[in-house]
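Structure Section — protein described below
Tokens — whole-number codes for backbone shape
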Amino acid sequence: MTEPFIRYEIAVREPHRHLYDVALIAGGSFPDSVEVRMPVWSPGSYLIREYARNMQDVSVSDPDGRALRFEKVSKNAWRIDGAGRGFAFRFRLYANEPNVQSPHLDDTHGFIHPPAVCPWIEGFSDRPCDVVLDLPDGWRTATGLEPVEGTSDTFRANDYDELLDCPIECGDFVDLRFTARRRPHRIVISGGGGFDEKALLKETRKIVETVIDFWGGAPPYRHYTFICHVFPGSRGGLEHRNSTVLGIDAHSFHPRKKYEDQVLTLIAHEFFHTWSVKRIRPAALGPFDYGQENYTRLLWVFEGITSYYDNLLVVRAGLMPAKRYFKNLSAFIGKLNQTPGRLRQSLAESSFDTWIKFYRQNEHSPNVLVNYYLKGMLVGLLLDLHVREKTDGRVSLDDIMRELWKRYQADGAGIGEAEFEAIAAEVSGLDLRRFFKRTVHSAEELDFNAAVKPFGLRLVTKRKGEAGENGDGPTPWIGVETDARDNAVAIRTVYEESPAEKAGLSAGDVVMAVDGFRVTPDTFKARLRAMAPGRAVSVAYFRRDRLKTATMTIDRTFETEVSIEPIADSGERPRRLRDAWLGSALETDS
């Protein structure tokens, strides 16, 4: 018998049509009947995406080019008969979703996202495989895969898991390189915007060094690639073992605050994942089942705590002032407090149900679910502050995360569903059962003011628009989220028990007038500010093109915002704890 080998041939011939020509070449000896399957999701993005829906023109042939009999047996699987001497499984793939979880192709670049491009042969996913690229003249390649020696267009993965974890960027991209902690790093940029390449290179290197130093020791990769898609409206990121894909809006490099919040923290977030989730992981997330959902209640740890550190490590890197960090934290707390679903769904439930709820939201979702990124980040904050305060700064969440890394290095195993909480208690020496029960396994309200007070800080809640702020005056809260539609106010969400819900308003309604006066997206809140609390007002709106009216009572609740503020003369211990947490002194920041 001849040892089986697997090769993927990916050609770009008609980029303007967004079509890749893909061939899965199986050589050597195989069973007479095999199944070829396409993944239905991407690790790191917990949604069934049904990648097979983009396949077309499927054909199968033997090594002599003769057609083989095959049959599609499920939404993402094909059974091939007569495959014993090998076969070629060919298809064309439509790729026109410019996001980090899907492939994209046009005349400017090609992004090959392997889970959406490369099917596997059932029973042979542990085999090495090659990727051979046929690209237009002038296009270059960037990937975490190792090139096959002596070639410029062929790359090798040790197994199917490695292949799926190494995206490939092709095109005439900007190519920036730097060395950090004796490892080569590469930033490739497709698209473009008005940004300073030297500053991006310098600040990315600083973030990389800060994150590596956080975990300690040498980086767990030989080289690392940042693939940046800088397009209008781009957003999000997806982590991989020695690379990441970053969707960056072309307009997010200015002003500085926007650049810090949308670019630098994204870089820090995805690079932190190199350790947390790509190596330290829930046991349920490795080895992967690419054909169905992989459930865990720990996404709040691996996404939420990573979100906690993405801002904090940018501060520790000296790239964001601590006072600005507090403004961001304040905004995050305010956002959570304005989400009714925080009192209905726990963090553990949110993590488990992400497959059907978080990534498939509708107009009612804010009333029934909580964002495990957002609340997980804030529970990470509370855990860090709690441990620091109770141990007088001897132990922190940093130490808990490093212990997770130490244990991963020892055995490479994923952690069980209850293991993070057990390790946190072991490392801190604290009984954390009540803490986790309240913050993770229930939907109780979180007490941020009590958490920040030992650090010489306080949480202040105030009405938006008060004197000394923007001067517009406070806006009554009626419990709606709105969009602009043809210069009218379209209701996107109605919160439970709000004045709007009690008046009978619903998502999809288009508000035309309040108290007989026309309102637009620019004037809606100004009109509400003119209404005295307790007053009943008429609302004219269209529902499915039928004009209707309702009476809404303006209650005494106003739109609010929170801010984290230093306590004057808080004392030496709070300053010491706070400076150790931030990595810098708050008073010296500008």
Q: What stands out?
A: The chain has a mean pLDDT of 95. The first strand starts at residue 5 and ends at 14.
